Amino acid sequence: MIKMLRIDDRLIHGQVAVTWSKQLEVTRIVVVSDTISEDEIQVSALKMAAPEGIKAFVLSVDKAAKMLNDPRADKLKVLLVLNDPKQVAALLAELITKPAILDIANYGRVAGLDGRHKITDTVYLSDEEVQIFKDLAQKGDKFIYQPLPGDAAEPLDKLLEG
Amino acid sequence: MLMQALAVGLACVLVKFGAWWGAMGWDRPMIASTITGILLGKPVEGITVGAALELVYMGTQSMGGVIPQDYGLGGIFGCAFAILVSAKPSVAVALSIPFSMLGTLIYDLFKFWATSLVTRFQTHLENHQIKAFKRLWNIQAFVYLLMWFLLGFISILAGTSAIKALVNMIPTVIMNSLTVAAGMLPALGMALLMISLWSKKLAPYFFIGFGLVAFFKGTLIEVAFLGAAVAFLAVIGQIGKHTNGNNAQPKTAESAEESEEEDFYND
Predict the structure, then answer these.
(1) Is A53 on the interface with B (CB under 8 A)?
(2) Mean pLDDT along residues B161-186
(3) Residue B260 contacts A, CB cutoff 8 Å
């Protein structure tokens, strides 16, 4: 099962590799991105960032959906990490079983703040991206904002209103 | 007090230089406190207080941009006050905590300034002004170290008598509770460490250490001695595994492509 889908600009780093993977006891970390999965250097760097005992994969949206929808994936504990809301929406549309938690943690600071609104200290969204999350919420894919396990989980739709 | 203040200022510089130069681990309370103790002429006290402080800050680690307490400064000031005020290690632990908080605040302020320099670094690089780039880098390092020196120097020069008065003013009842509380902090430090480190693979080491103390009444020295031997065994085992692993059949590009999917499902 997919324990969590996390949106994080920095993909696999300490908060993901150590803290969350420990908290959720995952055995697989899958970075889903059509662009990064094409980039050999980034793929090998991301695989190196995975802690011992956890296998890391970097897959395109279609391949990830295919592999996660396979019944054999049900017994795995998977943490998905993405850095692009559009691809998040594309992946969620293809998944048969939705992730247990949808978490937006760090977003919008790496690509640049131009035209983005501050949602929280670590999340900045453009109008287009806000719309993506509103559409997802209508379909029942409700995100929370929770950078670390010790932080309180705040519903994203509440943050978007406020 | 001037000499002591200079010594603590220098300890701050040394410890922070270790963090600037590379992750040297000089900012672990164990090391930071020992350095401070040596500079203040009391290495034994430095090590003793350092061991107590290391336990408290054991689980504190910086995780992806989240700045925890500055345990290096906690180590320096905990040790300095323990020696200068001749306070018990438990009091040193309590006194170190506000300084470890202050440290992150000061570092944040430094980061504001350092971040504002990024565009200037960039311009120097674009114009191929390597000398100017290096100069700016050295200025930044100098300000970083000077700031920690001043913190150590001023705090000890101006603060020691106040801290002394404060420690003497605390009634015995509160002092006793403080000692009990400080005694519990190592358990908290250990618990914090285990949140991020606990695994079935590492659990035996925890129980070996616990057993040595609980059943054989081992002191820290005895536990550390056997711990070093066990660590050596574990590292040798790891190195052996890695060298063998490298010699294993190299995967061809095609088989790697096919096996990725299999690898995903199999443990």
Answers:
(1) yes
(2) 81
(3) yes
